[in-house]
């Protein structure tokens, strides 16, 4: 297992991932960070847990649109179930981080 340091909303997190997936995890974190800032006006609206949850819900909504054929089509050759599983895993991790932040 590899360890990766990522930054979301100005906070550093150490995450575990499979060896060789470090770059992908950094890309995903950068995407989530960008969407969070876009959705919350720079990451300054409400508690951090609320901002993370709102971002997670928007990403889940976008994913459901894609899966239902209403959004950006998935690239041919990409296994949609694998993509959905990966996004579900990331969403669960975001929810875990949000829950820890609420308890802090």
Indicate the topology:
Blueprint: E1 2-8, E2 11-17, H1 22-39, H2 48-67, H3 80-103
Antiparallel strand pairs: 1-2
Helix pairs in contact: 1-2, 2-3
The major beta sheet can be summarized as: 2 strands, antiparallel
Overall 3D shape: globular
Distance between the termini: 27 Å
Q: Write down the Rg.
A: 14 Å
**H-E string:** EEHHH
Give the total of beta strands.
2
| Poorly predicted parts | none
Q: Helicity level, as a percent range?
A: 55-70%
The chain-level mean pLDDT equals 82
Spatial ordering of strands, largest sheet: 1-2
User: What is the structural class?
Assistant: alpha+beta
User: How large is the count of helical segments?
Assistant: 3
Counted up, domains total 1
Strand portion, in percent? 5-15%
């Amino acid at each position: 297992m590899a360890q990766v340091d990522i930054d979301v909303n100005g906070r550093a997190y150490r995450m575990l991932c499979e060896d060789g997936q470090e770059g992908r995890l950094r890309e995903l974190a950068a995407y989530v960070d960008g969407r969070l800032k876009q959705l919350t006006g720079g990451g300054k609206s409400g508690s951090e847990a609320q901002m993370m949850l709102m971002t997670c819900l928007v990403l889940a909504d976008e994913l459901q649109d894609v899966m239902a054929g209403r959004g950006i089509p998935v690239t041919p050759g990409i296994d949609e179930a694998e993509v959905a599983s990966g996004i579900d895993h990331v969403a669960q991790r975001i929810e875990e981080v949000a829950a820890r932040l609420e308890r802090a």
